[in-house]
Amino acid sequence: MAFHEYIRAVGTGPKSNRELKENEMIDAMECILNQSVYSEQIAAFLLGWRVRLETIEELKTTFNVCDKYIKRQTVENSIELGYPFDGKADNPYILPLVAKYLKKFDLNIVVSGDELQPAKKGLTLKELNANIKFDDNIHYFDRADYFKELSELTKIRNILGLRTAFNTVEKLLNPGNSKYAINAAFHKPYVVKYNELFGKNYEHLVIVKGNEGTPEIFSKCKYWLNKDGVISEHKIDPEYFGINYNKSTTVISKEDSLNMTKNPSNDLEKLAKLNAAMFLIASKKSNDIKEAYEMVD
């Protein structure tokens, strides 16, 4: 089918828009990832698809197409963290502070990075990795190496300047063949969506309402566990653990962000322990955040 028919399916308004069939979705994604159609057509489809709203079946098919391109390298006993590719803008990364607390549990962390994607203009994991030496149990995967087709869409995505379906799909592509994963959700409906989209790829998936769309806990929040298809909701309050970190709500410079991670305050270090406790829940070493925090401490 000509690609403009896929654009018509997502971009002609409520009366004519329709869900793409599986074979159509496969063909559309192959055209986009291989850039075998004009960049203007790719941008038009991604924008229309976003406005029309992607269905879970379309996202599943997109994920399955992406899966065929990925070059994987197994990291044993690892937890994949679903960071957004538009970075962190208001607060520093906790990631480099967490890893040391997981070594006694023989746990590895897998994260992925690339050049900045829309829509937030934050410090990316790629930049973090270039400026801070990670512990040896943090395994950084550069998307230009393991999924170059999606990485090479960066220019088109930045010209468009808006979030697309790739912002959802790209967070947990599992380049390290991890058994466990933590992903972040802004809104509760995404908890079910993420479990449907990613859950089958992991022995255990935790969804957390983390800071700036990351799997990092900075303040009182919720997290969700899926046991045999039943999703349960739980709460975390850092104040219960004696943590009184003042989370920023305004943009900080990249230099300040890096300095805060390199020279953490006492409360930021305590937050690192709390995040490590969440990783113990994700890796099924505990099912209670208070117990897990005591294990870390």
From TrEMBL:
Domain Glycosyl transferase family: 146-295
One Pfam family it belongs to: Glycos_trans_3N
Residues of the Glycosyl transferase family 3 N-terminal domain: 5-59
Natural source organism: Poseidonibacter ostreae
GO terms, biological process: L-tryptophan biosynthetic process
UniProt-recorded name of the protein: Glycosyl transferase
GO CC aspect terms: cytosol
Annotated Gene3D superfamilies: Nucleoside phosphorylase/phosphoribosyltransferase catalytic domain, Transferase, Pyrimidine Nucleoside Phosphorylase, Chain C
Keyword Transmembrane: no
Keyword Membrane: no
Keywords from the UniProt entry: Glycosyltransferase, Transferase
